[in-house]
Design brief:
With 92 residues, the chain is of the alpha+beta class. The chain has a single domain, classed as 2-Layer Sandwich (Chloramphenicol Acetyltransferase). The protein has one helix and five strands; from the N terminus they run βββββα. The protein has a three-stranded mixed β-sheet with strand order 1-2-5, with no helix packed on it. It has a two-stranded antiparallel sheet with strand order 3-4. A hairpin with a 2-residue loop joins strand 3 and strand 4. The longest helix has 21 residues.
Length: 92
């Protein structure tokens, strides 16, 4: 089965609702990254990079549980990228 990926980061789009285009069974949207404040500890605020990701899929071919598991797997893998590639990052 085919999954289409649409990345709108190059034009600054943060959020969108993807459309399934045949013959794909789904479309994964990846938005532009942006910084969001979060509480580091009591009284301290930090910034973290966030990117919105959305999945639209054909319910005749997949169900919500499978789609949710797929999205959770994507989230886990992306969150590990910095750790896995830290030796290649340039500081400064």
């Amino acid at each position: 089965m085919q999954l289409s990926i649409t990345n709108m980061a190059s034009v600054g789009v943060r959020s969108a609702t993807p459309v399934v285009a045949s013959p794909a069974m789904g479309t994964l949207f990846i938005g532009a990254a942006y910084e969001e404040p979060y509480t580091v500890s009591e009284g301290q605020i930090g910034l973290r990079a966030i990117a919105n990701v959305a999945l639209t899929f054909d319910h005749r071919l997949a169900n919500g549980i499978g789609a949710a598991r797929f999205m959770e797997d994507v989230r886990k893998r992306v969150s590990r990228l910095e750790r896995e590639f830290s030796e290649y990052l340039v500081e400064g």
